[in-house]
């Protein structure tokens, strides 16, 4: 794996840098400041700012409450926390060339099981939070074993796990919704993981934790042996195997990390929204994957960007809150997200063809 070149703004396995095409673009990319920050990150930040300003203008034109109100920012952040952990996890899986469509239902299953234990079985809160992470991790172990050791397609495996997670969550709670405690109630301290305070005097502790988690994931992906092997698996799995690396172990690890982060996402979901209903979570799969692809992670594997995923999550979150604030139907978000994924995948395909 001596040929692997790992970068924070777009980690990739092997070879020369991808040329985005055009001398002007290439000249901009070679600027020392741009190279240090990352060209893709700069573009994504620009998109994020433009989207924020666009929704602000739309709200003003339609005579609705100002989108620049701090409450909208808090709403977007609440959405970004749990979606962010899902996206961080699936970034590792996509980097191997696989996919995981079970992360949303797994998050809901984790929240349902742990919440039912808390509210109906009087299990201590700290134990329930650990159970949430454990449930997600077990699904990751299952997916990793089926894909890495039994050579099952990740698409089929994750679809089966998605249905399994929905079924377990519904059966465990007897098809009933679970309502976690409010901040003012007993055991409500867990909500301080998301925010502290109320009204306009809120400290977004969830943002701090999300940033720290993103930094840790970037270090794992870019600076550790596990991360290098995960990236190299997506670049050329057979070459990695022939070099004597235990590819099954590292491929399974990517799914385990994904499941564990889905379990953590469940904690931030209930910290922001409290109520969990059985049988849901599918739409969050698409949004998490869209965040990764938009951020520069290649669906073909071998190239992944944690920094890009982080910004992609913020874009999806602003999109979700902005559409509602501007008075549009939430279905419009699905249309725009689908277009974003198609454009990002097409750009990735063109980029790979130019490199080859």
Q: What descriptors fit this protein?
A:
356 residues; mainly alpha; ABC transporter involved in vitamin B12 uptake, BtuC; two-stranded antiparallel sheet; 13 helices; globular
Concise overview:
The chain is mainly alpha-helical and 356 residues long. Helix content is 69%, strand content 4%.
Description:
With 356 residues, the chain is mostly helical. The chain has a single domain (70-355), classed as ABC transporter involved in vitamin B12 uptake, BtuC (Orthogonal Bundle). Helices cover 69% and strands 4% of the residues. The chain is built from 13 helices and six strands. The chain has a two-stranded antiparallel sheet with strand order 1-6. It has a two-stranded antiparallel sheet with strand order 2-5. Strands 3-4 form a two-stranded antiparallel ribbon. Strand 3 (196-198) and strand 4 form a beta hairpin. Helix 4 runs parallel beside helix 8 (205-223) and helix 8 packs parallel to helix 9 (225-242). It is globular and about 55 Å long.
Using only C-alpha atoms, the radius of gyration works out to: 20 Å
Q: Report the structural category.
A: mainly alpha
Beginning-to-end CA distance, first to last residue = 19 Å
CATH topology: ABC transporter involved in vitamin B12 uptake, BtuC
Uncertain runs: 1-9, 14-21
Question: In sequence order, what are the helices and strands, one letter per element?
Answer: EHHHHHHHEEEHHHEHEHH
Strand content: under 5%
Can you give the mean pLDDT? 88
Question: How many domain regions?
Answer: 1
Describe the largest sheet: 2 strands, antiparallel
> What CATH architecture would you give?
Orthogonal Bundle
